[in-house]
Design a protein that fits this description.
225 residues, alpha+beta, Glutaredoxin, Glutathione S-transferase Yfyf (Class Pi), Chain A, domain 2, 4-stranded mixed β-sheet, 4 strands, globular, binds glutathione
Length: 225
């Protein structure tokens, strides 16, 4: 039987994306959690960009970059998560390509250190959520990106939407409620068991611990409150 090992930092959203795809496909795999500040010697040679995730397959192959890993798993293991139709698949991939931008726009809210930075981060988030809201509204009632069937694009967005809801909770912010289709999508993704590597309450503490450590304004306010 093929042996899959996922090299991970515990709260990395890109790792989580790969883990979601493995869980959706009911593939048995093992996590190897390492720490960013204390990398084992074997990690450098298998990770050209020095990043997680890396998916080790048996002992000879190491795949890197979460999108490449997700696509590889979808090419090789049933059920197929990408849509069958080539146009639908291209559109799903196009929205998947937006993820790195989406990730940095959302991440800026937790790390903003001044009122001005926080206000402009929120404005950028509103713009990103509006873009996705418009796309989702043109697609029907969800609950997932393509409707009833969970797809690779959902696995990509789940970790970021999950984290953003936690940041909003910490901030006492309700920005995402102004985007009901996004909110519905985010909640459906958070409700899906394959989204979770850790029990939700454990992950919440792990993740918000990191946000607090970064010392942004919303973390300072939450601590000071
Ligand atoms: N484009 C990469 C992004 C992966 C990434 O940024 N991983 C972060 C952790 S979440 C990382 O390993 N950063 C290197 C570091 O912290 O030194 C992917 O999709 O796999």
């Amino acid at each position: 039987m093929t042996k899959y090992r996922l090299i991970s930092f515990k709260t990395c959203p890109w790792v989580q994306r790969a883990a979601i795809v493995l869980r959706e496909k009911k593939v048995e795999f093992e996590f190897i959690h390492i720490e960013s500040g204390n990398r084992p010697e074997w990690f450098g040679p298998i990770s050209p960009h020095g990043k997680v995730p890396v998916l080790r397959i048996d002992d000879d192959i190491a795949l890197f970059e979460s999108n490449a890993i997700a696509e590889y798993l979808d090419d090789t293991i049933e059920p197929r998560l990408h849509p069958q139709d080539p146009i639908a698949r291209a559109i799903n991939r196009a929205w998947t390509d937006y993820l790195p931008t989406f990730s940095s726009v959302l991440g800026a809210v937790g790390s903003a250190k001044t009122e001005e930075a926080l206000a402009s981060a929120r404005e950028a988030v509103a713009g990103a959520l509006a873009r996705i809201e418009k796309e989702l509204n043109g697609r029907g009632n969800g609950p997932y990106f393509n409707g009833e069937h969970f797809a690779l694009v959902d696995a990509g967005y789940a970790p970021f939407l999950q984290r953003y809801l936690l940041v909003e909770e910490l901030a006492g912010d309700a920005l995402s409620r102004g985007f009901p289709a996004v909110r519905r999508w985010a909640e459906a993704l958070v409700a899906r068991p394959t989204t979770h590597t850790f029990p939700p309450a454990v992950f919440r503490d792990l993740y918000l611990g990191g946000v607090r450590q970064r010392g942004g304004l919303i973390a300072q306010r939450a601590l000071g409150a």
